[in-house]
Amino acid sequence: MSSESTQYELSEEELRELIPQLQQLTDKYKRSERVQKALFDIAELASSVSNLNRLYPAIHEIIGDFMNADNFFVAFYEKDANLVNFVYFVDEFDEQTIRQIPAESLMDGITGHILRTGRHVFLEKENQEAFTRETGVSIVGAVPHQFLGVPLKRGSQVIGAMVVQTYDETVFYTDEDLEVLLFVSQHIVNAVDRVKSRELTERTIRDRTRQLRKINDELQEEILERQKIETLQQALYEISELSANLEGDMDAFYASIHKILARLITAPNCYIATLDETGEYLDFPYFSDTTEETIERRPLGLGLSEFVLRTGQTELINPPRVLELTQAGELDVAAAQRMLKSANSWLGSPLVVDGKISGVIGIQTYGKLAKYTAKDLELLRFVSHHIAAAIGRKRNTDAIQQYNALLEEKVRERTRELDKINSFLKQQIEERKEIELKLIHDAHHDSLTDLPNRTMFTSRLELAVANKQRYPENLFAVLFIDLDRFKTINDTLGHHAGDEFLIEVSRRIALCIRGHDLLARLGGDEFVVLLDNFEDAAAAEDVATRIIDAISKPFLLDGKEMYSGASVGIAHLESYYRTADEVLRDADAAMYQAKTLGRGRFVMFDKSMRDRLIEELELENEFRLALRQEEFDCYLQPVMDLRNDSAFYHELYVRWEHSRHGKVNRKHFREVADQSGLTLDLDLFQLRKACELLNNETEEPAGIEKIAVNVSINHLLQASLVTKILQLVEEYKVSPDRLVFEFDENDLNRRSQFILPAIKKLKRAGITLVLDNFGSGLASLSYLFAYPFDYIKIDHRFVKSLPRSQRNLKLIQSVMLISEHLKFDVIAEGVDARAQLKALNEIDCHYAQGKILSTPEPVARQKRA
């Protein structure tokens, strides 16, 4: 054993010889360990770094751990762009300022040689000349002591180069350094590719996120814009509703307009200014201001409102604009100073009615921070000119757009979820079916009472007419119901109470009929009932009686007890009816007859009613033709001055002698004119005839100083009609003081509160005014004090009873006594007997008219050219 042990023992010299080998082997292992660590670090970088700008410095640091790499750069060859991109460059002597260099300018250098050949370069300073001669490469820049460059390859394709170099002559690179650099280069390419991919992914994510954020911002802006549009549409709808109910409280109406405007524009201060009848003053029917409580009526001047009236345009006036208008003489200095002192911002828009500017709506703010803009200007112009808007159509458009957008979004997001999409579409189909059913219901029912409307009732009635023609023994009837005092309830308690009233009426009528009968509302206060297949003809009368009794009971509306009534027309279906309209027409005629007989009753239709209606219609048509061709007979009857037995003025009136009916009496004559809507035309015909007689002095009867015509009260309800009368008189060149207008007191009773300004205008023009049929109305004495009449005609019924009725004689004397204080004269009308004339002379009545004094004289008929 000892001999074997000795055999394997090494001598000291042998061990000394092994030490360098062991030392070399140790250095090799350490170097391998550093290379492995470098590869591990590179792999970790590829996994953790997301930015190439951080990757290259880290790679530089890793390579510097196992070799000197004070001078290091990485370049990539972009073949498509023919550029060399120096993505990382560190050098002690050269400073690379241009990152991208054209490839052709580098291909003659060492870097270009590596990129062209795909071979590494290990170059020392001593053999550079030989390398240059051999390869034709030219060295640019500072000459390094040693140069070590390796290609960067993706597969077999050269994509770049990685270079380390040193200028320090004490530093030397070895073949092992080259081997390590070649080995590491491939892993570096993999790391770069991975980081580039991650960087591209993250950049794509960031770009997509930015796009989505931008899209979201745009959607938010669109939502805000749509909300503004919806607010504007709602405001226009509310303004439209208000403008449809002008008969209510105007102060509340203006306040509501202000409230709606304040939701659209900053409008703490608002007023409405209107021109008066003369066009010389501004009235302020509405004024709301934070600094002033009221504003007085003022003559037109150089104010902001007057400026808008002159320009006819919507105006935005801020302090700079105030100075401009003042210098141009468009604005009063005092008004300008007030605006500048309070830093006003003012918007005003003209109010155009019937094509004529009648006023201004203005809003304003105080303070430097609250200023109106051009957008506010456009908004006010739009609101002032467009009261109504198609809200329903806009909502439908928005709903369709919303639906389409939702569908598109669902398709994009859930293309793979077909089951969910099918479920969603099925739900939409069901909803549309429900909407269609609701539309069908709404199209055939009244929106207020939910009763069938005219369309549905007519359809059912057509079926009943067809059934009657096939089965004449079946009994059907239509009840046409009209309510009393509905307009009074609406005007006094408001439309809300009117709606409650109609709903309660529909409930009461429904309790009076059978389940299979049909109750419908035609509109307004008109209801109809179709009694379906009843057994006894008297059943229709029983139902009508029950309905009248039910409606006559009191209604409790807004805490007030109100009474109404009903007039019912009944039309039994007969075999000769062909359409539903014929049945409704006859039931309506019977209802009208019931109202004529005193309301609160029912009338059964018979054929005589239709004959009368047809006769009246024919009479109206013939009346229109006669008026158009001026076929009426005109008569003049004087009003006599009893003191000297002379004619004070002549009253002109017309008569109509019908070819079949003979002379139409005066009352029927006026009724036909009213029903035909030709009362105003008839008045103008009489006025033209009077002006022609006054102009043609040579015609009979000659010597007429004044002519009186009867004028309908309808001429006084609109200022334009009064103006038209005065223009007609001016066209004929007749002095207004030669005309006398007689107004019936019964007409004044109905519309007296609206006509005083018109009567005063006629008075100022010089026309003589007469109150006709005095004493026939209900409030006669009030007219004597309130209206500037020149003469009062005592109604003929008071004169007829003279002299036997001392009471009527005393009444005439009382009116004459009042006339002395109110500066008018009294005319006795209808003096047909000498005893009447004698009684009037005894009480000193100076003016009279009647057959005993003078009979009406016909005027020659002349057709106008």
Can you walk me through this structure?
The chain starts with a helix and ends in a 6-residue tail after the last strand. By secondary structure, it is an alpha+beta fold. The protein has five domains: 17-202, 2-Layer Sandwich (Beta-Lactamase); 245-389, GAF domain (Beta-Lactamase); 393-443, no CATH class; 454-605, 2-Layer Sandwich (Alpha-Beta Plaits); 618-859, TIM Barrel (Alpha-Beta Barrel), CATH 3.20.20. The protein is elongated. It has 27 helices and 29 strands. The chain is 51% helix and 21% strand. Strands 20-21-23-24-25-26-27-28 form an eight-stranded mixed β-barrel. Residues 1-8 and 387-398 have low confidence and may be disordered. A hairpin with a 3-residue loop joins strand 21 (646-658) and strand 22 (662-664).
